[in-house]
Amino acid sequence: MKKTHTRDYIQWSDEGFMEKVLCKGCGTVLSSMVEGDAIRSTKKGNTIVKHVPLTLQQTAAYDVVTLEMEDGSAHETPICKSCKVEIEAGLFDEDDLFATDVRSWKYTAKRTKTSFQRNQTERKVKKRVN
Ligand SMILES: [Zn+2]
Fold first, then answer.
1. pLDDT tens for residues 32-79?
2. Residue 79 phi/psi, 5° resolution?
3. β-strand 40-44 against 29-35: which pairing, if any?
4. pLDDT confidence tier of residue 127, bands split at 50, 70 and 90
5. Ligand 1 center to 22 CA (angstroms)
6. CB–CB of 115/109 below 8 Å?
7. How far is CA 124 from CA 38, 54, 86, 89, in A?
8. Whole-model pTM above 0.85?
9. In whole angstroms, what is the distance from residue 130 CA to residue 128 CA?
10. Quick check: 92 and 2 in contact, CB under 8 A?
């Protein structure tokens, strides 16, 4: 069974926004921050301040896989196209992938001072029947 490649699949900038999202399965970049065109300039005294819009843009590798949970719910998570094929073939430890997401939610909640539902950690992924 393949395990998660990277637990820190969301990379944060020093300013506190998501800079990159990596594939949990292999580390391929799924989305990254890119500069938009709508650059705006304002003047502050003798200084010209350029405002560059940033957006999180998905790469060609980006895909989403649905993990079916034992409680009947479903969990969608970003993954690269080739890891998705391996997950659907039952080659990945899906509980490990889900645990990686839970860890990331906890971390994001801490960073953004939002709440995190404790019962998430008890959820289990339903085993695939192929
Ligand atoms: Zn991957």
1. 999 888 788 999 899 999 888 888 999 999 999 999 999 999 999 999
2. -155, 160
3. unpaired
4. confident
5. 8
6. yes
7. 44, 36, 19, 18
8. no
9. 6
10. yes
What does the block give as tokens for 82? 């080739």
Task: State both tokens at 59.
Answer: 């790469």
Domain ranges of the chain: 10-37+45-114
Distance, CA 83 to ligand 1 centroid (Å)? 4
Q: How far is the CA of 63 from the centre of ligand 1 (A)?
A: 9
Cα of 40 vs centre of ligand 1, distance in Å, is 37
Q: Where are the beta strands (DSSP E) in 1-130?
A: 10-12, 18-22, 29-35, 40-44, 47-51, 54-58, 62-68, 74-80
